[in-house]
Amino acid sequence: MDPYLPFIRETPEKFPALTASRLFAMARGRGYPGGPDHFRHLIALHRPRPKAEAYLRLRTLPGEQARVDWGHFGYLAVGRARRPLMAFVMVLSYSRQIFLRFYLDARMENFLRGHVAAFAAFGGAARVLLYDNLKSAVLERQGEAIRFHPTLLALAGHYRFEPRPVAVARGNERGRVERAIRYIRDHFFAARSFQDLADLNAQAEAWRLGPVADWPCPEDRGRRVGEVFAGEQPRLLALPDNPFPTEERTGVKAGKTPYVRFDLNDYS
């Protein structure tokens, strides 16, 4: 093996996706006499390891930020139709208080209803809402140029929050809502029976006000989510007297929405 070590070390550095079988064929073409199994074992020892990427742990102030996403929970039979069961999830980044509401699709009307219901349940709105580049939020993205859905901009103006898409390939910016959806899937939805959508949502509301409020809060290990949320709630933005209309506004042409430029280094 020794005469072939420089080749074995240099080639994967130039072509990281090169498979061991292809590298073995290339080594055989250069006169390597060994077998493929022994070669694969040696490749595993000498193949360069990808560099681990360091992530900054993101911390927020009370009332500063919430994160929003959809979770898919299979399908529900409604008469003869088979409808997708979608969970609208909003998580307050500081207290980790959850809002959960199930809908039969992820259309804009239900996206709006989820926001309005979440703000009403929290008794206020966070100053910044983070989105994982959902089509209901971001119509187009080119680098730092963001074209938001016009209806989302109208919703943001009504409640005075700032919509922000998370930076591309930054798992630490959306981890809180993704962990919440995973927790909902494992600790609420698994093996749960319900009669219809209204019954499921009633159970979800009781769950988030009960077991969820009793979680240890990651921002304050000595207290529970419900306790921390009680201190965070007065810091949320006050709600307007009239809720936002939840029917999609068809009169606004999405193609006319201007680009909005953000500094992606400022996402926190």
Overall pLDDT level: 84
As laid out across the biggest beta sheet, the strand order is: 3-2-1-4-7
Shape call: elongated
Q: How is the biggest beta sheet arranged?
A: 5 strands, mixed
State the separation between the terminal residues, measured CA to CA: 49 Å
Q: What's the total number of strands?
A: 10
- Beta-strand residue percentage: 15-25%
Q: Stretches where pLDDT falls below 50 for ≥5 residues?
A: 169-173, 249-268
Number of helices: 8
What is the H/E string? HHHEEEHEEEHEHHEEHE
At a glance:
By secondary structure, the chain is α+β, with helices and mostly antiparallel strands. It is built from eight helices and ten strands.
Keywords:
36% helix; 268 residues; three-stranded antiparallel sheet; 8 helices; alpha+beta
Q: Can you tell me about this structure?
A:
With about 270 residues, this protein is α+β, with helices and mostly antiparallel strands. It contains eight helices and ten strands. The strands form three sheets. Strands 3-2-1-4-7 form a five-stranded mixed β-sheet, sandwiched between helices. Strands 5-6-10 form a three-stranded antiparallel β-sheet. It has a two-stranded antiparallel sheet with strand order 8-9. The longest helix has 19 residues, at about 170-190. The radius of gyration is 25 Å and the shape is elongated. About 30% of the residues are buried. Mean pLDDT is about 85; it is low at about 170-175 and about 250-268.
